[in-house]
Design a protein that fits this description.
The protein is mainly alpha-helical and about 200 residues long. The protein is built from 7 helices and 2 strands, in the order αααααββαα. It has a two-stranded antiparallel ribbon. Belongs to the cytochrome b561 family.
C-alpha cells in the first residue's frame, strides 16, 4: 500500500485510517498489536496445556495449530515488522502519558519489545545450536547445524524460561492496566488500540 501526499502536503483522509495519528493507532498498528497478542497467548496456551496435561488430543491439536518453534519464529517476524512500522510512524503516534505513569508505561512497552525479540531469537539459536533445523509449519527455513554449538545453546538454556514467565507477568499487568484505564480512569487509552 502506498500513501499519497496531495499537493497540499497533507496525507489523504483515507490513508490516515491505516497510519497512526496523535489521537489513535491506525489499522496497521492495531492489527500488528492484536496479532502479537494472539500469537503470544497461543504460545502460552500450548506450553501450559502440555505442562498441565501432557500428550493428549487437546495438546496435539493445539500443537498442530501452533508448534512452539513456528510460533516463536512468527512472533519474531511480527515484532520486527512492528518495530519498523513504529519507526515509520514515530512522529505521529499518540503521545505517552505525562509523569511517572507515562515513564513506567514506556519502560514496560520497551521491555515487551525486548522480550518479544530476545525470547524467540534465543530459542532459535538454541535449536540451531543443538543441531536441529529451523522450521516454520513444516517448511525448512534453515538446515540443521552439523554439530553442537555451545555458545548458541547457553543463552536460551539460561534465560528462555525465566524471561518467558516475565513476559507472562507483564502481559497480565498490561491487560490489568488497560482495564483499569477503561473502567476506573474512564479514559480513551484502550480505545486508541482497540479501534
Amino acid at each position: 500500500m502506498t500513501f499519497h501526499i496531495e499537493n497540499t502536503g497533507i496525507i489523504n483522509q483515507s490513508d490516515t485510517k491505516w497510519r497512526d495519528s496523535q489521537n489513535y493507532y491506525g489499522r496497521v498498528s492495531r492489527t500488528l498489536h492484536w496479532l502479537t497478542a494472539a500469537l503470544v497467548i497461543l504460545q502460552f496456551s500450548v506450553v501450559l496445556a502440555w505442562r498441565g496435561t501432557g500428550k493428549n488430543t487437546v495438546t496435539l491439536f493445539l500443537d498442530s495449530i501452533g508448534p512452539h518453534g513456528s510460533l516463536g519464529l512468527l512472533i519474531l517476524v511480527v515484532t520486527l515488522v512492528r518495530l519498523y512500522w513504529t519507526w515509520l510512524n514515530r512522529k505521529q503516534r499518540p503521545p505517552k502519558a505525562p509523569g511517572l505513569g507515562g515513564r513506567i508505561a514506556s519502560l514496560v512497552h520497551m521491555a515487551f519489545y525486548m522480550l518479544l525479540l530476545f525470547l524467540p531469537a534465543f530459542a532459535l539459536l538454541r535449536q540451531y545450536g543443538e543441531g536441529y533445523e529451523i522450521r516454520l509449519y513444516g517448511m525448512t527455513m534453515l538446515p540443521a547445524a552439523e554439530r553442537h554449538i555451545a555458545w548458541m545453546v547457553a543463552p536460551a538454556d539460561l534465560l528462555h524460561s525465566p524471561l518467558s514467565w516475565l513476559l507472562a507477568g507483564l502481559m497480565i499487568g498490561h491487560i490489568a492496566m488497560a482495564l483499569i484505564h477503561r473502567f476506573w480512569f474512564k479514559d480513551n487509552i484502550l480505545a486508541r488500540i482497540a479501534g
